[in-house]
Model the fold of this input.
Amino acid sequence: MTETIGIWIAAFLTLCMFSFLYKDNPFYKFAEHLFVGVSMGYYIPYTYYNAFIPYAYNPLFLKKEYILIIPFIIGFLYWFRFSSKFSWVSRYPIAFGMGMVGMGVPMSMHATVLVQMRSMMLPLNNINIILIFIGTISILLYFFFSKAHEGVYGKFTSIGIWFMMVGFGASFGYTVMARISLLIGRVQFLLGDWLGLIK
Amino acid sequence: MKRQIPLMIVLILGLLFVAHVFIPSKISTDYLEWFMKWTKVIGPFAIVLGVFSLVYVHYNKIKRKAPTWGYSIVTLTALVVTTAVGFIWGIQEGTPYMWIFKNFNVPLGATMFSLLAFYIASAAYKAFRARSIEATVLLVAAIIVMLGRVSIGQAITHWIPDITEWILNVPNLAAKRGIALGVGLGMTATSLKIMLGIERSYLGGKD
Amino acid sequence: MKFVDRIQKVDRRIIYVILLLAVVLPLVFRLGFKTYTTTPVENLYRHIDAAAGKDDVAVLMDFTHDPGVLPELYPMDLAILRHCFERNIKVFTISFLPQGAAIIQMALSEVKEDYPNIEANVDYCNFGFKPWSTKLPIMLGMGDDIAEAVETNSEGLKLENLPIMQNMKNYDNIQVVVEISGSSMGQFWVTYARAKFGVDVAVGLTAVMAADVYPYLQSGQFVGSLGGLKGAAEYEQLVDIFAMYGNEFSKNYARDQAWVEAQYEELPELARLYKYNKARIGMDAQAIVHVLIIFFIILGNVGYFLDKRAQKKKFGK
Done:
């Protein structure tokens, strides 16, 4: 019974959202505001049970690891964000979290730059790799605006534009596919779970 | 106190993390363990910021009787009810909390994004114009990929999926790699700027 | 009004209705288009399948996605779980988004009802939701000790006491990390977990991001990828034609359409359930709509060029 009611509610809310395609209307606005409230309300119990209790409350109050009172207090400092006089206090927990960027410097350099550069040119033993090499270099040079794109340099960088147009075309084709897939999913729900036309 | 000490914290922790990546000693591992433990304690407190911000905005709308203030009541009621249901009956499978997720969150979230399909169809008809040779190349590549990713492409000729694979594995790869390299270098530069205190926008505020 | 003007000024709501019909009709009247598998999906399938029957190796699935991308990613979730349960592959599931944790519960309960012998904390373990701020600590901590980094499962039980964790210590016991998300979080795993500990990483992505992963596939940083609904459909097929028969993967057979069709003739009823075929059924509609979009692009451009020529004739060069 609750499942049936749930499916009808889900179908009603789906149709409320789709009603925006005709024009903005109270049903759509209602569904939109409901979504915001439910989404945020959903976060709170999950964060409490799965984060606050096991990582903050239990270690400090049950396991008596009293040193953790310091990060507990640092966490509380977040809440000063809304005070006009003491909002600077919230910078401390933010700064603590930002400390991890230090790890990002060498690691992103390795994973997103060095490994990719290596794969771009080793081994240069077939036409496709050579094309990838030329394409990547020309694109990188295209975005180097400190030198004027003239003469031979300009012609080489224009090769990058062609590679980018094909790349963006591929992304566009995939984006169309993605958006249509989302619609197919909702229609499958309406026709299958709600109306029972597809089994 | 207000800016200098947080920047010093970022610098010191950042440098220690850089050292941690290159130094495989016990001190380095212990440092990571300590940081991980403290981050797990600090993390949950941030949720309050988002909740308070939402409540504050909508409460003010209701108080001032701003236009569409009635919908703000819907938002706040949904927030309170969902939270209460989660705390009273728990968050496991089979609870009212999960029932709300399946029958409210899922259809609302999924449908909101599925509206884009209609806009892309409308844009395909009204806006995607081959105004230049580059735009034509883009559209032709898109059409080949769209046909190649479905079985109709294979049914027309096996060349379409083969060309699609070549497009994805060569020119698309080169383009995305070039962009990824730029992004990677940018990320490294931004991380360095944050660590050295040159980039301070994450701190917010004027003082 | 001239034909050119008429086709340029079609009401967008007519386009919406045509699109809706192009989606609805193929779903109701199944067209049964074939699915052809591609290398990135086959590589992921083969990699996961290599853990079949092993007690000391698991697949870690990271469900960092929300309901907005469920139509593309949920069939992937079900297909990978079905593969693992069918081939006795241990599974860990985790999410750094609360919605993802609920999706894990939905997916596990939906697949488990067809595999009554699969036991929680023995054959699979749901680590549940861990806050976003703990993603990096947990990702790095699992390189030393999974039980210490994650601490508890979704029910609050200590990991070190669970039967599944008896032979599992760190990333050496993780066959592959499969990040299923609508964003570029797979690169996070590559940057930190793979770079530091060498764990294999794969991604299940929405189609929007699918074209962006090819550099990482070529460099070997991703061992495989599932791109959108098509990727999910391919994986569903691979599970049907190999896992459901208890066979190991073979690329030659996977690409042999006659052999694939023969496998479907004696497929167990379980594999014919609607929930395990959603992606392939959806691809019927996808194919028709792709043709429709291409038609719209061509028609729109024909109108544009005809209009441009007419304007040129009227006003000169």
